[in-house]
Structures are given as C-alpha cells and as structure tokens.
Amino acid sequence: MPDVILKNLPFLLAGLRLTVEIALLSIVGGTLLGLAIGVLRYLRIPLIARSFDLYVVFMRGTPLLVVLFSCYFGLPALFGHKTSAYWAAVGGFVLFIGAYLAEDIRAGLRSVSPSLVQAALATGLTRASVLRLIVVPIAVRNVIPTLFNQYVRLFKFTSVASVIGVNEFTGSAMLVNGREFAPITIIGFVALTYFLLCFAISLVGRTLYAHLAVRT
Questions:
Q1: Contact 100, 34 (CB under 8 A)
Q2: How far apart are CA 106 and CA 34, in angstroms?
Q3: Which has the closest alpha carbon to 161: 52, 99, 81, 87?
Q4: Above 70 in pLDDT, residue 215?
Q5: Counting Cβ atoms within 10 Å, is residue 208 exposed (0-12), middle (13-18) or buried (19+)?
Q6: Ramachandran area for residue 44 (φ above 0: left; ψ -120 to 50: alpha; else beta)
Q7: pLDDT at 212 (0 to 100)
Q8: What is the phi/psi pair of residue 62, to 5°?
Q9: What is the pLDDT of residues 24-41, one digit of tens each?
Q10: What's the CA angle centered on 38, arms 71 and 44, to 5 degrees?
Q11: pTM to 2 decimals?
C-alpha cells in the first residue's frame, strides 16, 4: 500500500466508518419508508395514495444535492430547529431513496397474482392478514435484486454528503489530497474501496435472491 495511504489510513478509515454508518441508517430508514408508502399506494386509498404519488414523483425529479440542501438549510429555517450535517444527510438520503424504493416495492406488490390473493381470502383470512402474511413477503422477495441495486446506488450517493460538511470517506480523502497532493493514488484508493464495498453489497443481494426468490 502506498505511503501516502498508510500515513493517513486512520483518518481515511474514520471517514469510511462514517460512510458505512450513514449508508446503513439510510438503507434501514429508506426501506421502511419505501415499504410503508409502497403498501399505501398499492391499497389505492384515494387521498393518501394520491399524496404519496406526488411525493414519489417530486423526489424522483429532484436532484439529491437539492434534497440535502433542503434538509440542512431549508427545514431548520422553516421549523426553527437546527440539525447537524450528519442527521441532515441521513434524513435527506432516507427521503430520497425511500421514493425510489416505494416505487420498486409497489411494482413487487402488483406482481403478486390476484388469483393467489383470492385463494387466500377464500380460506377465511382477512384482507389485512393476506397483505401482511402473503402479499408483502412475496413482493419483497420478488424485488430483492432491485432493492440491492438501489442500495448500491445509495452507498455511492453518500459521497455527496461532504458538500454539507460531513467528513465521510470521499470528503476525508479530498482533505488528505489537499494536504499531500497525490490525486492519482488517493482517488484510485477511494475508487477501489467503493468498488469492493459495492461489489459486496451486490453479492449479498444475489445470495439472498438465490435463497429467497419465489419460484413459479
């Protein structure tokens, strides 16, 4: 490993830890948000479904950087409550990725065969039980590859958190480069690290899908 990396390794690893932490919190929060919105849109409750339709369309048409600026500068100004750059970044990533996951999960819910739902209802289960015990589990298993593609995208998106002052991995690497000026070595190290971690996330997704996919 190059000297410039070894010399700054503790600092870079601290930034990488922050990146992983933000990504994990955003994945959990975004998945829960996406699942809730996906189910509510699937149920087509008139006003609620329409409201979340607009939310999904708005988020999907808004740059991530604008969402982060809104969470860090806009919302505190609106509600008079200052938040840290770290939590603004997590909140922005959850809101942003939640919209994409909601659309993916809704597609998964709609992929469940209506005849399967009718058969479950015929056994005496309530609609809520059919949704919770049959439709949602099958839908989530069907969209595992799509969900993990979004997780990989999210992991790479975390690199923009440095623009609001979060010293995540890329931001830390740029600080090191500003001090040491070894752009090829440092950027190469950053790219290789992102590649390995994104590959690991994809591998987890493929493994889960291989074991949990619904076979028809």
A1: yes
A2: 9
A3: 87
A4: no
A5: middle
A6: left
A7: 82
A8: -115, 130
A9: 999 999 999 999 999 999
A10: 120
A11: 0.92
Would you give the distance in Å from CA 138 to the centre of its chain?
Answer: 21
* Residue 91 in this model has a pLDDT that exceeds 90: yes
Q: What percent of the chain has pLDDT over 70?
A: 99
Contacts of 156 (CB under 8 A, 6+ apart): 194, 198
3-class SS string, the chain: CCHHHHHCHHHHHHHHHHHHHHHHHHHHHHHHHHHHHHHHHHHCCHHHHHHHHHHHHHHHCCCHHHHHHHHHHHHHHHHCCCCCHHHHHHHHHHHHHHHHHHHHHHHHHHCCCHHHHHHHHHCCCCHHHHHHHHHHHHHHHHCHHHHHHHHHHHHHHHHHHHHHCCCCHHHHHHHHHHHHCCHHHHHHHHHHHHHHHHHHHHHHHHHHHHHHCCCC
pLDDT over 70 (residue 216): no
Using one digit for the tens of pLDDT, what is the confidence trace for 197-213?
Answer: 999 999 999 999 998 87
Find, among 57, 52, 30, 32, the residue nearest to 41 by Cα: 52
Q: The tokens of 134 are what? A: 């049959």
